[in-house]
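[job 4417] fold queue: 2 targets
>>> target A
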Amino acid sequence: MDIPDWIRWIFFAFAAVQLLYVYRAASLARRAGPGHRTGPWLEAADHATGVVLSAGLALGELPVLMVAAPVLMVILSWQGIRSLLARRAAGTNPTATAGATPGGEA
């Protein structure tokens, strides 16, 4: 890939910032109690894969992108499914009778 140098430096900066997020997420995951560890570790994996993707873009390495992108998609899918299941278990889905009524009628 032919990426201009100034864009490569931007990707390196993104990778450096994401490393800070990886550290923060990993420290939160290590302190999480039993039963609450999966979410923080998924967040740490999300940020770590983002570091790999940013570094791969900065270096212009297509094989790195071809491996890291599907891994990131799996992690993001897993986070989305967990979020959806947690929302369903909590019962926060709005019902047809809750909320505003059509036409502003009370």
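>>> target B
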Amino acid sequence: MSVSLLAAKTKEIDPTGEGLSPSYVGFIVGGGKSVRETCSDRAAQLIAAALDREIADFFEDAIFRLDESTSTRRTEPGEGPTALPERLMDQAELSRFLRKSMSWIDAQIQEARARGELWPGLIYVGRSRRFDPAAVLEGQRLQRSA
């Protein structure tokens, strides 16, 4: 099936009638330099439905979360000074969660960097930013009370 035909099928099955653009479908299913490793849940659902297949046949869940710590020194999640947060968010998710723009988050990170600090809740995973929402909220609470 061609990219343009798959895009047209997503439009047919999408309840909103929007579907996915051929270029976005190409980014997801293509094999060139512009291929993307991730896509939105909506895009995955539309592509799988257009092909009459299960999402798991084509897409892996991008969030890998351990319910228990793998450390031999801790027995419960959330214990100890290096405990992992329950869930990490990317910047777009944090933006929706806080109801702030992504540029507002960028500005907060830059201001903290100018002060020689790391913005509360910011965790670098390789070159990607991830955020602990609980730590971000606690940092904002402390900043307001200061």
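[job 4417] complete. Note on B: The chain has six helices and two strands.
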